[in-house]
Amino acid sequence: MLRIYDTRARQVEEISAGRAVRMYTCGPTVYRHAHVGNLRTYVLSDLIRRVIERRRVRVLACQNITDVGHLTDSGADKVMEGARAEGRSVRELARFYEDAFVADSSALNLRPPEHMPRASETVDLMIELIARLVEQGHAYVVPDGSVFFDVRTFPTYGDISGNRLDDLKPAHRIDAVDPRKRFHADWALWKPSSGELTWESPWGPGFPGWHVECSAMSLRFLGSRFELHVGGIDLRFPHHEDERAQSDSAAGHEVVRHWVHGEHLLFDGRKMAKSTGNVVLLSDVVAAGLDPLAVRLAFLEHRYRQQMNLTWDTLRAADRTLRRWRARVAEWSESPSAPMASGWVERIESAFDDDLDTPSALRILRELERDDTVAPGAKFETFLHVDQVLALDLSTEIGRARVLPPGAGELLEARARARDARDWDASDRLREELAEMGVRVSDTPEGQSWS
Ligand code: AMP
Ligand code: ZN
């Protein structure tokens, strides 16, 4: 079974699975396109899911859509601000970027989660949870209609990130000196409002805080105990710390078994973030003529727990590998069938189970590709088997590559002769004729090849 680094336990732990593993991933805030940095975190969830499912254990995934409540540093709602900037309604903007996110996820072969609740459609769950926390004495209502979590009622606050209450300086938070709070590190569960994003509640009209949204949705869709909670490393504090305090206080016990965090993606050496303007979208990758799955392969070349620096060169290299593997799989598919290369599969799978050591898995796969003692049919079976986890569409060229349209064979031969005779004009003309038939010719040191 998969062993994975648990941020709270600070060690690698085996996931104990019954019949199913339940996994919550903090979903995107839909006020702009997800950049490939964000997507790295969602590839992590997908990878966890595929590695576990290979063991015939079902994964039940919930990944929310944050379309209200996530505030900027200056306290504005991100979606509301985005809508204002683009001159659209909040709902229109949120649905637009949600659709774009779903399309990007699908281009990266991310399996759709079983549950994808929108925060704006589950506000009743948040109100219910907040009311419970107030009733239990974990939260308090202030005269303007805000509700705050009383963090000092949760003694193990800080277990995930190590940020203990005693060490947290008031200055750490922008609203440090908010006189409505009993303690500077308390946070809002409910905020009064009157704009487009407003719901009725026992405390007056308003909207829920981002942290309580994830608690309410995870408790509702996965239950009061679940195995995995996934997000990017920046969510460790305060988002996940606050979420744990809310969920555990309401449930009366530890709700999440393992907290898993993916490290950040850098681009050209700097953290990818909208605020630094250092953003690459999946559509930029496609516009550069690269396969979107080159992004997935580039991610897999690094361990999820390492910061990773992406560059256009790495993406182009990943794209070449992808194309080469697809071509080779197609080639091997024409050889007599053979059982999977034993020993190899076990090594690759144990790398996956070893805290998602995908760089090692890929290294072993490259070794297998080069090993002349392994029958092509066995390579074929092994690559396809491993692709259930890698999800790189390695079978897409099968049956496609080797069938020439009628007449193309003669043209290829004529072009080879033209090249031998150094007749470049004829060679170029023949290449164009072939291109019109759908045959792409390229010249390599070994002679011309086609696809
Ligand atoms: P957001 O849509 O801003 O709520 O972020 C969605 C997810 O992307 C969260 O899990 C973040 O932690 C994660 N994230 C943000 N920036 C990066 C980055 N540069 N690399 C990897 N993950 C990131
Ligand atoms: Zn969350």
* SSE class: alpha/beta
How do the strands line up in the largest sheet?
A: 4-3-9-10
Could you tell me which ligands this complex binds, including any ions or cofactors? adenosine monophosphate, zinc ion
Please state the average pLDDT score: 93
Q: Give the % helix.
A: 40-55%
What is the 3D form? Answer: elongated
- Percent strand: 5-15%
Beta strand count = 15
- Put simply, the count of helices is 14
Order of SSEs, N→C? EEEHEHHHEEEEHEHEEEHHEHHHHHHEE
Largest sheet: 4 strands, parallel
**Low-confidence segments, ≥5 residues, pLDDT <50?**
none
Instruction: State the end-to-end distance.
Output: 40 Å
Radius of gyration, rounded? 26 Å
Task: Sum up the structure in keywords.
451 residues, alpha/beta, four-stranded parallel sheet, four-stranded antiparallel sheet, 14% strand, binds adenosine monophosphate, binds zinc ion
Give structural notes.
The chain is of the alpha/beta class. Helices cover 41% and strands 14% of the residues. It contains 14 helices and 15 strands. The strands form 5 sheets. It has a 4-stranded parallel sheet with strand order 4-3-9-10, with helices on both faces. Strands 5-6-7-8 form a 4-stranded antiparallel sheet. A hairpin with a 2-residue loop joins strand 11 and strand 12. Helix 4 crosses helix 5, helix 9 crosses helix 12 and helix 10 packs antiparallel against helix 11. The longest helix has 21 residues. It is elongated. The two termini are 40 Å apart. The relative contact order is 0.11. The mean pLDDT is 93. Adenosine monophosphate binds next to helix 1 and strand 9. The site of zinc ion has 4 residues, from helix 6.
